[in-house]
């Protein structure tokens, strides 16, 4: 039985483990802290293949494909783990607050309709009939019925439970310092105390991925981008659609919790929650949904998005045999969880995934006409 070592036990690492265990591989996950406690737990959980993607191309195609996998993926996961993931087919309302945003929304709707993606273009009254909690100041909205949501903490717990039930091994408190290479093949990883051997190694360390020593030259590096989130509560729940604006988003949970975010800050591994950040988030949310002024604050946190220089994840085979990458998903990590697990598993099994992964390859591709 081939052994796969996965560096990182967030949603990417555990989803890859889940899929590989289903295919009969032996899997060990190495995590410096608690599985799923970093970026995965800090996300809002919008499955925004349309609301969060700015244009067409291979990245949009991959996001749409992953969104389409989510229902079956969550169903399998809940069956194995017994943990409900909070998957809701809520739809997303992309709200325009002024004419400039209205023009942006109209342009976005146009290119999506050209690609046969479902969009409902709503004027103010239509949007407020669909979601009465919206401000009277909006000028219109795009409604994306196929953009849904999932609860990231529940998803992380379900993945960890499913991996454990299928026989995957977790090793927490392991700080991976580098790769273990024999000849030209990666055959494991090194920590401060030992070498952990494996037939295949997957780098799924999120914002910490580029800190592993001895990595080969890659297409881009991964760096942390901090984002603050505020959670409030309303009882009973006052609205049900995800509201997405050009300054932030509001995600209502079925039990009355509301997640609002997020800032975008380049400040290294600093996860501080600041008064300035919370003020920006609160102002954004009240502009779109004024009744949130009645909500009670329950929590606030910051997460570290794994950002890359070109905005695309590192996904697929590395430049050395035995090495694979599933990291750098930036703002779309929860959305891309199922397809990342599927693609990575197919590569390890020696199969060719049916999507265009050229923009996401971890290695530098030679340009045409150059050697």
UniProtKB/TrEMBL annotation:
Domain of life: Bacteria
GO molecular function: flavin adenine dinucleotide binding; glycine oxidase activity
UniProt keyword ATP-binding, yes or no: no
GO cellular component: cytoplasm
Keywords: Oxidoreductase, Thiamine biosynthesis
SUPFAM superfamilies, A to Z: FAD-linked reductases, C-terminal domain, FAD/NAD(P)-binding domain
Domain FAD dependent oxidoreductase: 3-346
EC number: 1.4.3.19
Pathway annotation from the record: Cofactor biosynthesis; thiamine diphosphate biosynthesis
GO biological process: one example: thiamine diphosphate biosynthetic process
Enzyme class: oxidoreductase
Pfam families in alphabetical order: DAO (PF01266)
PANTHER family: GLYCINE OXIDASE, SARCOSINE DEHYDROGENASE-RELATED
Protein name: Glycine oxidase
């Amino acid at each position: 039985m081939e052994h796969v070592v996965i560096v990182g036990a967030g949603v990417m690492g555990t989803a890859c483990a889940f899929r590989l265990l289903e295919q009969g591989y032996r899997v060990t996950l190495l995590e410096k802290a608690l599985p799923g406690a970093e970026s995965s737990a800090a996300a809002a959980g919008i499955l925004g293949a349309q609301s969060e993607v700015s244009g067409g191309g291979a990245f949009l195609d991959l996001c749409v494909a992953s969104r389409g996998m989510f229902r079956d993926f969550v169903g399998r996961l809940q069956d194995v783990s017994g943990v409900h993931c909070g998957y809701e087919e809520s739809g997303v309302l992309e709200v325009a607050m002024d004419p400039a945003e209205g023009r942006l929304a109209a342009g976005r709707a146009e290119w999506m309709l050209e690609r046969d993606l479902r969009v409902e273009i709503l004027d103010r009254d239509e949007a407020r009939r669909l979601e009465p909690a919206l401000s009277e100041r909006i000028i219109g909205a795009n409604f994306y019925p196929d953009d849904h949501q999932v609860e990231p903490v529940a998803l992380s717990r379900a993945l960890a439970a499913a991996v454990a039930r299928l026989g995957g091994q977790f090793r927490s408190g392991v700080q991976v310092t580098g790769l273990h290479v024999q000849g030209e093949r990666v055959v494991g990883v090194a920590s401060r105390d030992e070498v952990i051997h494996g037939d295949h190694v997957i780098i799924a360390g999120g914002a910490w991925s580029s800190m592993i020593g001895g990595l080969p030259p890659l297409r881009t590096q991964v760096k942390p981008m901090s984002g603050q989130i505020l959670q409030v509560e309303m009882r009973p729940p006052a609205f049900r659609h995800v509201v997405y604006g050009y300054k932030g988003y509001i995600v209502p949970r079925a039990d009355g919790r509301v997640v609002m975010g997020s800032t975008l800050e380049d400040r290294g591994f600093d996860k501080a929650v600041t008064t300035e950040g919370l003020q920006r988030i609160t102002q954004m949310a009240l502009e779109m949904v004024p009744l949130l002024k009645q909500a009670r604050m329950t929590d606030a946190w910051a997460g570290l998005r794994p950002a890359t220089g070109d905005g695309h994840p590192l996904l697929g085979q590395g430049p050395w045999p035995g090495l694979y990458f599933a990291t750098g998903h930036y703002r779309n990590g929860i959305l891309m969880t199922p397809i990342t697990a599927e693609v990575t598993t197919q590569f390890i099994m020696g199969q060719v995934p049916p999507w265009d992964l050229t923009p996401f390859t971890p290695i530098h591709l030679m340009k045409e006409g150059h050697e």
